[in-house]
Amino acid sequence: MQASLSPGRRHKNPDVPAPSPPEVRDWSALPGDILVGVFLKLGPREIMRGADMVCTAWRRGAVGEPALWRRVDLTTVPARSTLLWKAMARAAVDRAAGQCEAYRGPCDNDFLLYLIERATSLKSIHLSHDDTREVVLKVAQLNQLPLLEDVDVSLSYFSNGASINLFNSVCQACPRLKELRMSFTRNSDSNYDDNIGGFYQEKCEIPVMGELRFLQLLGYYLTVAGLTAILDSCPVLESLNVPSGDYLITSRMDEKLRAKCAKLKNVTLPYDSDEEEYYEESDLEDGYESESYYYPFY
């Protein structure tokens, strides 16, 4: 008599072949164009923190392809980890072999000089600088980059007067900029007084910025004289963003200055603390797109 099978057990069919083991992929044999595409998706930081250590072939591909390093973004690398970000930044610039067109990340004077000497094709540069050692960033060196169009400088200062002439220095060094952003942040331990910004003098002058279309100044103390200098020196300016500034008394703006502001497509200016803010829709001059924008009038 045949013994009955338990419900949880089945006969094995000897005619059914056992499943073959999964195919082992040789990732080091990836075609070069596919590997480059993968690296471009990862970005410089991820390549240097792991991808280029997978195997010799990947390492060779990462180091030997300058196209991977045309745009270097190290904004997620902690700026206080000086040894880490500086080693990564220098390696990225070296791998670009003179083809780097954009850099974003921490910066000090030593690296700025290193970057300028080895990346003369730079068109865009976004720098963050922490003045813990009370050292002013030497932006005048940017005049050695003839193709530079976009500059973004974010600064945290601990010393008095360090940023007073910085905006003017950038303008003098890069008169052909199309976009300029500067951000000034005071640390809680800062010794700054209210004269943190640049344009608090009665008369102000900046070089002619004949191609500048976008200007943003954050944490900058702008005056009516400073605003006038900017508008007079930037004939094609379309967007101006200066959301704060204790020295800009907008109620003192005359009709001529208001008319100059009204020609811009986008304007953000601080308003007097003792006056109520309100916005007025304004038509743009001929030559601009027909759209409305908001500008605070006081």
Automatic annotation (TrEMBL):
Name of this protein: F-box domain-containing protein
Classification of source organism: Eukaryota, Viridiplantae, Streptophyta, Embryophyta, Tracheophyta
Domain F-box: 27-74
Xref: Pfam families: F-box-like
Region annotation (Disordered) ranges: 1-25
